[in-house]
Specification:
The complex is a heterodimer of chains A (217) and B (223). Chain A is an all-alpha fold. Helices cover 85% and strands 0% of the residues of chain A. Chain A contains 9 helices and no strands. The termini of chain A are far apart. The relative contact order of chain A is 0.15. The A-B interface holds A 57-58, 61-67, 69-70, 73-74, 76-79, 151, 155-156, 158-159, 161-162, 169, 172-173, 176, 180, 182-183, 186-187, 189-190, 193-194, 197-198, 201 and B 1, 3, 62-63, 65-72, 74-75, 78-79, 82, 156, 160-161, 163-164, 166-167, 174, 177, 187-188, 191-192, 194-195, 198-199, 202-203.
Chain lengths: 217, 223
């Protein structure tokens, strides 16, 4: 056993970079999956809608940790060993896609139907309708809950530690094994997460309040 | 893909899965009840307590909600023994689930309390209702309508979140799957079975809660 020193603090902060990077990549991946799921969820074709509903139900109805395990071992099983880094990215993206898809479905459906009918009457095809008419209006209601979800995503990346990927939480575990100062080390780890998440939490609730005010008028 | 699925080993291990699932239910049920009790006190303190207490509860909620559950578990399970509080994995998991769940439940209960406008209470008192009658007939039915639906979702989230307790080897469902996996080397099958059990449980509870809401409040409130 050795004592905790400045080098260890640096080690934690450097490991936090991986948490940030993982969150950003998972958000990009989850955004892509979420967009597809949201569009399928509001599509005309029944099969697309059912697939999207099933996807959302399964990913929201099972623990994220098991989803990560299944991706990790599922890759091996089909002969494509993914490794910790890729499995965590893939698993988090699929999971985030389900949650973002459900959030964005709500925003799309909040756009009055008359708008879409008018766009169709004007002869705009699907792409233009979605991009020029629905998206700008849906974006307003989508942003606050999306920012709120980012907090969940950042916290979720800590589960990568269980798979064995060295990010902030895993780095904390390693240091705790060496120094055995759990309150100090996990307190520091928690503080770093807090510094990342709290501004987003505040931003989300401010945006939400502003949106609510805009709708009152 | 030339992998052959073997669920025979999973069937042989059915006892472990059932015990794990029961422990998951026990942990999440106990944690839900305890965090509801804490949340009612916490929400009252947060809305009508003295200022330092209000700030303390607010800080607690923000700290818990902005840090990962896994880090909270580690802090409790590895931290408490260093100050002389010895606990086994299940006790550590339960404490962590209660502390984590309380923060979210406080916010749910607070939203219910704050939603009732003061005018309604004044109106009820002006109509000659006693304080108790006002609470029972005016405040409570409206507050419950707002509080109960998200409590159902919170329970399901808590149950799914409890899988993280396998990180400290609490005897719940995910740990059971990890044990079976370690013994049979059938990782995918073990995790699929566990995931299916979680999925069935969350479907069961969301249907049950929806039914309770419909019976108690009539038409289901859209969220």
């Amino acid at each position: 056993m050795r004592s905790f020193n400045a080098g260890d603090l640096l080690y934690l902060l450097l490991a936090a970079r991986w948490t940030v990077l993982l969150s950003l990549i998972a958000f990009a991946g989850g955004g892509l999956v979420g967009l597809i799921i949201a569009l399928m969820r509001v599509a005309q074709a029944r099969a697309a809608r059912w697939f999207a509903i099933g996807f959302i139900r399964v990913f929201q109805g099972t623990p994220l940790l098991l989803q990560l395990f299944l991706v990790f071992f599922g890759g091996d099983l089909i002969g494509v060993p993914l490794g910790a880094w890729l499995s965590v990215i893939l698993g988090l993206s699929l999971n985030a896609g389900a949650f973002l898809g459900e959030i964005w479905r709500g925003s799309i459906q909040a756009v009055p139907n008359g708008q879409i009918e008018a766009a169709r009457a004007l002869g705009l095809h699907y792409g233009h309708r979605m991009l020029r008419v629905v998206a700008p209006q849906a974006l307003r209601t989508a942003i606050p809950p999306t920012v709120g979800f980012l907090v969940n995503l950042i916290k979720s990346t800590s589960l990568a530690a269980i798979i064995g990927f060295v990010e902030l939480t895993r780095a904390g575990q390693q240091l705790n094994n060496a120094t055995f100062r759990p309150f100090l080390i996990f307190g520091l780890v928690a503080s770093v997460y807090f510094v990342m998440c709290w501004p987003l939490t505040i931003a989300a609730s401010r945006l939400e309040r502003r949106l609510a005010l805009a709708y009152q008028r | 893909m030339n992998y052959i699925f073997h669920f025979g080993d999973m069937w042989n291990a059915r006892g472990e899965f059932v015990e794990g699932a029961l422990m998951t239910l026990r942990l999440s049920g106990l944690a839900m009840v305890a965090s509801l009790v804490i949340a009612i006190l916490g929400a009252l303190a947060r809305t009508s307590g003295p200022k330092p207490l209000r700030m303390l509860v607010a800080a607690y909620v923000e700290i818990i909600r902005n840090t990962p559950f896994l880090v909270q578990i580690f802090m409790i399970f590895f931290g408490l023994p260093t100050v002389g509080i010895r606990l086994d994995a299940n006790e550590g998991a339960l404490i962590a689930l209660i502390l984590n769940g309380s923060a979210y439940t406080i916010e749910i209960v607070r939203a219910g309390i704050e939603n009732i406008s003061h005018g309604q209470i004044e109106g009820a008192l002006a109509l000659g209702l006693h304080r108790l009658q006002t609470f029972r007939l005016v405040v409570l039915p409206q507050a419950l309508r707002i509080i109960v639906p998200p409590l159902g979702s919170q329970f399901i989230l808590l149950m799914l979140n409890s899988s993280v307790c396998s990180a400290i080897s609490a005897d719940e469902l995910t740990s059971a799957a990890l044990d079976v996996q370690g013994r049979t080397f059938r990782a995918f099958e073990a995790f699929i079975v566990a995931a299916a059990i979680y999925f069935a449980l969350s479907l069961l509870f969301s249907t049950a809660f929806a039914t309770i809401e419909r019976l108690a409040f009539g038409k289901r409130i859209s969220r």
